[in-house]
Amino acid sequence: MLSFFSNQIDRQKDVSNEEKTLTDLEKSDGSRFPGDDYRPSDRKNWMAGLTLEKLTLNKIVWPGTHDSATNDIGIPLISRPLAECQTLSIYEQLVLGTRVLDIRVQEDRQICHGILTSYDVDVVIDDVIRFLSETHSEIVILEIRTEFGHKDPPEFETYLADKLGQFLIHQDDNLFNKPVSEILPKRVICIWKPRESPKPSRGGILWNSDYLKDNWIDTDLPWTKFQSNLKHLSEQQPISSRKFFYRVENTVTPQADNPVVWVKPVTDRIRKHARLFISQCVSKGCGDKLQILSTDFIEGDFVDACVGLTHARIEGKV
Question: Which residues, 6 or more positions from 204, have their beta carbon under 8 angstroms from its beta carbon?
Fold first, then answer.
C-alpha cells in the first residue's frame, strides 16, 4: 500500500516537472511564428477568406479535433468525463473552423470511444451536410474508423458513398498540389478506415488509411508528447513532396496509474501550448512539414493559429 501511494506521488511530480518544462520553454523562446497575428474575419468561412487560387491542399495547416463526436458520450458527471474530448457538436466545431474530424464507430453505427457510446453516425453526417450547405469554399477531411476492439459496420462504404456522394473528392495523388479553386465544388475528403473489411481502393470515391498517418503515443506527460510530436514530424517529408496527410495530435491521454483520469484536466497540460508547438516547428526547420494539427476541446485561438500559418504560407513567408 505504501508503495502504491509513493508511485502516485512520483507520477504527479513527473507531470508537474514536465508542465514546468513547457512553461519555461514558452517564457524563454516565446510562441511567435509567421502569421501568428493573423485572425480570420469569419472562422466559419476561413478558407474562402484566403486566396483560393493560391491555396493548395498541401499548404493548408488543417485545424482538427481528436475524438470529434464525443460531446454526448457516456453518462453525464459519471462516465462522460472519462471519454469526452469535445463539448461542441460536429456542426459547431465546423462553424468554429475545424476542418479535420476524427470519428470512431462500432458495428451498429453508433459513435463510440472504447466501450462508451453516444449517438448514431447519421448525426455526424447530417451536421457535415448542414455545414456544407451553408458554405461554398470550405473543404473538410472526414476520417471515420472502426474503433479498436469493435467490428466494422456492415456495408459502411456504401452508406458513406450514398450519404455524401455529391460532395466527395475522389482519391487522387495529384490533388495535393492543386489549389482549392480547382477542386471545388467537391468539398469532402472522406477517409474510411475499417478494421477487417477491405480498405477503399486507390482512385475511388473514398480514401483509405494510407492517406492519413500519424505517430500517436499513449502518455499523459506533456513534454514527452511534445518532444515525440516534434521528433516524428521532423522525420516526415516536406508538404511539397508528400502524397498523404500527416497529423500531429496536441493531446495527452489519461493513464490508469495516475490519480487524475478525467480527460479535460489531463489534456489541458498540453492543449494550451499549441502556439508554442507551431513556433518550435518553425524554429527547428519543420515549418514546411506541419499539416494537420489536432486538439481536444477546440477553441477559436487554436483555429486562428493554424489559419495564420496557412496565410503566411500562401504569402510566401514560411
Answer: 170, 171
What is the three-class DSSP state of 217?
Answer: coil
Whether the model clears a pTM of 0.90, i.e. scores above it, the answer is yes
Which cell goes with 75? 453518462
DSSP structural state of residue 78: T
Question: Residue 100 pairs with which residues in a beta bridge?
Answer: 64, 141
The SS3 call for residue 293 is strand
> Hunting for cell 476520417 — which residue is that?
143
8 A C-beta contact, residue 92 and residue 300 = no
Query: What is the tens place of the pLDDT at every residue in 140-151?
Result: 999 999 999 999
Q: For 31-73, what is each residue's pLDDT tens digit?
A: 999 999 999 999 999 999 999 999 999 999 999 999 999 999 9
Nearest Cα neighbor of 290 from 20, 27, 35 is 35
Give the separation between CA 147 and CA 145, rounded to whole angstroms.
Answer: 6
CA 53/CA 181 separation, integer angstroms: 5
